[in-house]
C-alpha cells in the first residue's frame, strides 16, 4: 500500500487536488478568471483596511464593514490560492 505524497504545507497531494479542482469541475470555463480575481483581490483588499481603521471602529456599521472586508479577504485568499499552479 502506498502513501500519498505530501506537499510542503503538509497536505497530501490527493487532498490538494480535490480541494483545488472543485472550481474547475463546477465551472471549467470560468475557473481561471475566478482564481485570478481571487488572487488579485486578496492582494488589493488589505489596502481598504487603512481608511476604515484610520476613521476608527466607533460605530457598529464601521465594525461590520471591517469584518466584512476581512471575510471577503479570506474568501479571496481561498479562491485565489491555486492561481498559476
How would you portray this structure in words?
- The chain has a domain at 30-85.
- Helix 2 packs across helix 4 (60-80).
- The protein contains four helices and no strands.
- The protein has helices at residues 13-26, 31-44, 49-55, 60-80.
- It is elongated and about 45 Å long.
- It is mainly α and 85 residues long.
- 4% of the residues are buried.
- Computed over alpha carbons, the radius of gyration is 17 Å
What fraction of the residues are assigned to beta strands by DSSP?
A: under 5%
For the biggest sheet, the summary is: none
How far apart are the first and last residues' alpha carbons, in Å? 28 Å
How many beta strands in the DSSP annotation?
0
Keywords: Membrane, Transmembrane, Transmembrane helix
InterPro entries: DUF8028
Biased composition (Polar residues): 1-11
Pfam family, one: DUF8028
Amino acid at each position: 500500500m502506498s502513501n500519498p505524497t505530501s506537499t510542503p504545507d503538509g497536505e497530501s497531494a490527493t487532498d490538494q487536488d480535490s480541494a483545488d479542482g472543485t472550481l474547475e469541475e463546477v465551472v471549467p470555463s470560468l475557473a481561471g478568471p475566478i482564481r485570478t480575481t481571487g488572487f488579485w483581490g486578496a492582494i488589493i483588499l488589505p489596502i481598504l483596511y487603512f481608511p476604515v481603521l484610520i476613521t476608527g471602529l466607533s460605530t457598529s456599521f464601521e465594525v461590520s464593514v471591517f469584518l466584512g472586508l476581512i471575510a471577503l479577504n479570506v474568501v479571496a485568499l481561498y479562491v485565489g490560492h491555486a492561481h498559476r499552479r
